[in-house]
Amino acid sequence: xKNPVNMLQSVGYISPSGISSKKPNSxxxxxxxxxxxxEKKIVKEAFKNLGKNIDWxxxxxxxxxxxxxxxxxxxxxxxxxxxxxxxxxxxxEELEPGETxxxxxxxxxxxxxxxxxxxxRMSRPQFTEFTVSTNLKEVGIHxxxxxxxxxxxxxxxxxxxxxxxxxxxRNRLLFVTTLAGMTQFxxxxxxxxxxxxxxFGTMDAAINLITDEQDVQVIVGRRNAVHKLSNMSGWSDTxxxxxxxxxxxxxxxxxxxxxxxxxxxxxxxxxxxxxxDELWLxxxxxxxxxxxxxxxRTGQETILSNEALNIYMRFDDGIGIFRPNRxxxxxxxx
Length: 334
Prior knowledge:
The two termini are 29 Å apart. The protein is globular. The chain is α+β, with helices and mostly antiparallel strands. It has a single domain, classed as phage-related protein like fold (Alpha-Beta Complex). Helix 3 crosses helix 5 (155-178). The protein has helices spanning 4-11, 27-48, 59-82, 145-149, 155-178, 200-208, 223-230, 237-246, and strands spanning 92-95, 100-107, 126-133, 135-144, 192-194, 216-222, 251-252, 255-260, 263-265, 269-271, 279-283, 288-304, 308-321, 327-331. The longest helix is centred in the N-terminal third of the chain and has 24 residues, at 59-82.
């Protein structure tokens, strides 16, 4: 992690642009805007070449629709492989659909003080077994074929939104479902630290919640929490200048700080990968595993008789936390 600025710009990529005709301001956003615009022109031209009165059951028309749908599925697959934020926190295990990940940790081997000539006392190794199973999830996109024909949709734009939705789901699975269900991370738990009056002492107390067997690998939070970190009193003028230049804290005590984003989905409302007044600290030793079966397990499209297109994407994933003491929750930041 030699370049914290670039790392912060790329790693925390879970905020979709949505589907909009407005021109974005950033260069990266402009590149996407141009890509979506060009793809829409190509799609519109392809259908225009098929004639004015399109028969949706015609083989040539069906082929063009399938090209569009497969582009959405394949691009979603590619983006998922490139932007999985959770891989910064926990190792990812690739499984086959329906397979269960099994981790066996050996223990029970002892050391005794002995004397020369005496028989060696033996230990019988034992195993602790941890498992992670995957569950099927689905994303379905329903599109009117007339809107595809007239260039209303870009395959990459639909794929970008779908991949971001899946990525946020996986972050929610970790931060909200798995961790929120464990007593160690609740207000009276061993891995919980109140961030009231956040300062260097509070941060150090949170770091100390992760035991001495490992170092903290990453600190992660949403913008509000990261902003509070940069506003702590006591930073040097050099550090303050860097915050002004980079927009946020890039490192704390040699630990990279990653900002994640939330977004509002038109169907599901506000999607929170994690609360906005918390920082989470992950150790360099894995606290658990993420299990993913083939990223997108299957992808298929169905052309309906009522001039509509359904695109289905199914994926399997699961998360298991085996060592809660390797994660710390700094909450209630004020």
